[in-house]
Amino acid sequence: MAGGAVDDPAARDRLAQLVALRTPSGAALLAEAAAAYGTSGGSSSTARELAVGARLRAEGVPAELVAAAFTQAELRRRAAAKFVLADRMFFTRAGLEQASSQAAAEHRASRFAGRARVADLCSGIGGDASALGPGREILLVDRDPVHLRMAELNAGVHGARTVRACLSDVRDVDLDGVDGVFVDPARRSGDRRLGSGACEPPLPWCFALTDRVGAVAVKAAPGIDLGQVPAGWEVEFVADGRDLKEAVLFSPELATSPRRATVLRAPSRGATPTAVPSTEAGRLGDEGVEPRGRAGAVSLVGSPDSTATESPVRVGEPGRYLYDPNPAVTRAGLVGELARQLDAWQLDPMIAFLTSDEAMATPFARLLRVEAQQPFDVRRLAADLRARGISALDIRRRGLAGDVDALRRRLLPRRRDLVPGGPAVTVVMTRLREEPWALICVPESPPG
Q: Where is the composition biased (Basic and acidic residues) (predicted)?
């Protein structure tokens, strides 16, 4: 690693353990730890771990190295939800928590297609480097020597061949010759989460990187104040399923739309990661859906005020179907664009629920079939639910105040009221004609 010495004794010890785990005997130790850790968990798994750990220490393996191997076994199992090749990667607890998933990183890496030398600033354990590295030279920069070394190794696991690692504060790094920068500023300091909107280095410093490199992408919290984003930058909101994970800010050189909503899909187990193809970069597909990156992500693009300037979204009575837009869509201000694609309308101009009389498949909203509707009244609603013999209850609320958990207890005070094999019901609390309204819905399989 270039750029600085490792002065922290604890970091030197962890680096030494990492070196030891990469030897043939260390690989065998990792294999034993993974086998002992198992996949089922519970008391039997714990007993197995204790027995194997005790045997290894009795055989002369240093206790610290045994502990490091078992930590990696645990983290690799947890990381399998994020990375296809997790069983070959190295992690710390904090590094895994903060790392981008493989699907998010691969989707993002497509923006850098055609750029030969990319810098990954605040690289952490290399979640993004693993997608950025194949097919180009990559510069990794981080102040944590353990994370930096793990980022090198993890990028190599995913096919990166030309990797330079620099142990440094990102503000001190020479970016001459770099033609793309990705930066994931820290939102934690040690175990402490920084205040709302705060990060290190600060966002203004990240935006100013364009004074040196035109192509810049910045990862940010999904709750970012959009007033902080400079003019001409694109804001992409990324959800893993329906879980809104992050915002990514793209400089004008990389931007293709003011706003974007992206829904990630998990990579296929057993797939071999490869360099991200560039053929889809910057190209719109049919109906405003952009197939960027690999098949693990779909994007809805458009201007947040496009429907206001072209054709306002209709407002009307509930149809046969209800669409609950993905949080990435609502955060990106693209509910109107989604309504246009679905030929749907809103129940209220200020509420994101969409409705229509025809069911259409979309990755950008949950589809529900409206079974009944009524003015919101807890007692009447509870009686209706009991009469239906439901097996599960979900509550969605938009446009109305109230505690969802308290409402659930009033609608379903006893678990024995649930009927095995009965319908799973979603109660939608919203506003219609300026009145509190309830819709009783069931999940609907998209057509086709």
A: 283-293
